Amino acid sequence: MSDIAHQPSISTSTVIRKLNDFSRLPKTMSWDEYAFKMSFIVQVFKNLNIITVLEVRTQAIIRKHFLSYDRAVRCRVKILNTL
């Protein structure tokens, strides 16, 4: 989180607050896996703004994260691109 906060010069708590917003998802998302850290990143496809970074990229963790969003919010996602 501190690496993410360092680039735009914002606080780590701001990064955490933005990443834990479960009220919306974009219509088009992209995601990627980082093998060297075994982490998983989800971004807005259009501008590559980070939605969340998961420390572990297992299916169970990813599923649990997205089930934190209401079904109506999840249904708004129309396209999912992998980077």
Estimated radius of gyration: 13 Å
How many strand segments?
4
Identify low-pLDDT runs. Answer: none
Q: How far is it from the N-terminal to the C-terminal residue, by CA?
A: 21 Å
Which class of secondary structure composition applies to the elements? Answer: alpha+beta
Task: Please characterize this protein's 3D structure.
By secondary structure, this protein is α+β, with helices and mostly antiparallel strands. It has four helices and four strands, in the order ααβββααβ. The chain has a four-stranded mixed β-sheet with strand order 3-2-1-4, with helices on one face. β2 and β3 form a beta hairpin. The longest helix is centred in the C-terminal third of the chain and has 9 residues. It is globular and about 35 Å long.
Element layout with pairings:
Elements: H1 2-6, H2 12-19, E1 28-34, E2 39-44, E3 50-54, H3 59-67, H4 71-75, E4 79-82
Parallel strand pairs: 1-4
Antiparallel strand pairs: 1-2, 2-3
Short structural description:
With 83 residues, the chain is an alpha+beta fold.
Offer a few descriptive terms:
4 strands, four-stranded mixed beta sheet, globular, single chain, 83 residues, 4 helices, alpha+beta
